[in-house]
Design a protein that fits this description.
The protein has about 170 residues and is of the alpha+beta class. It has two domains: about 5-125, Arc Repressor Mutant, subunit A; about 125-170. The protein has eight helices and four strands; from the N terminus they run ααβββαβααααα. The protein has a four-stranded mixed sheet. A hairpin with a 2-residue loop joins β2 (about 45-55) and β3. The longest helix has 18 residues, at about 65-85. The radius of gyration is 16 Å and the shape is globular. The model has no long low-confidence stretch (mean pLDDT about 90). It binds zinc ion. Zinc ion binds near residues 80, 93 and 113.
């Protein structure tokens, strides 16, 4: 995974918001990048998609998903747009976080999914903001309640927050 590229893309986008307020308004950010963001009835198995036509990107998210899920989906699809738009003009995502292990995807597709997921966590839970929140809130991260409180602040799932804090080495 090209984490360097992902960090630089994420930082460039975050720089366009001054000051950064939490939770990150991911829908507005995607729109700022020129994308349309629209709700769709995508059924039970699809969380979101990115379609690119004549250079114009449209993100569709599942209208039946909970808010934290939709936000992650939009961030994930924005990741595909920023990182992978030269490789395909259509990305359709299953409920990716939880089903990824069993999916019969090729290595390259899996890698793109991992990259889009990592992009999504970095943009929804920026390193500096997570660190500051921890300093200010004095959260004891070892507890489940601490993670829950942090997840609420960033409007992400506790699973996503737990993974992020782990990755940042704050656990
Ligand atoms: Zn994806």
């Amino acid at each position: 995974m090209n984490t360097k590229l992902i960090h630089s893309k994420v930082n460039a986008i975050l720089k366009t918001i001054v000051p950064i307020e939490l939770p990150i308004n991911i829908e507005e950010l995607a729109k700022k990048r020129g994308l349309d963001v629209l709700p769709y009835d995508l059924g039970q198995d699809v969380s979101g998609l990115l379609a690119i036509k004549d250079g114009k990107g449209t993100i569709g998210y599942n209208i039946t998903d909970a808010s934290v899920r939709r936000r992650f989906t939009i961030a994930h699809e924005l990741g595909h747009y920023e990182l992978h738009k030269e490789k395909s003009d259509l990305f359709v995502d299953q409920q990716f976080i939880y089903r990824r292990q069993n999916s019969p995807l090729s290595f390259e597709l899996k890698e793109m999914e991992n990259e889009a997921n990592y992009f999504a966590s970095c943009i929804l839970m920026p390193t500096d903001q997570v660190r500051k929140a921890l300093e200010i809130m004095d959260i004891n991260l070892v507890t489940e309640d601490g993670i829950k409180e942090l997840a609420k602040l960033f409007d992400v799932s506790t699973t996503a927050m737990s993974l992020r804090v782990n990755k940042l080495g704050f656990f």
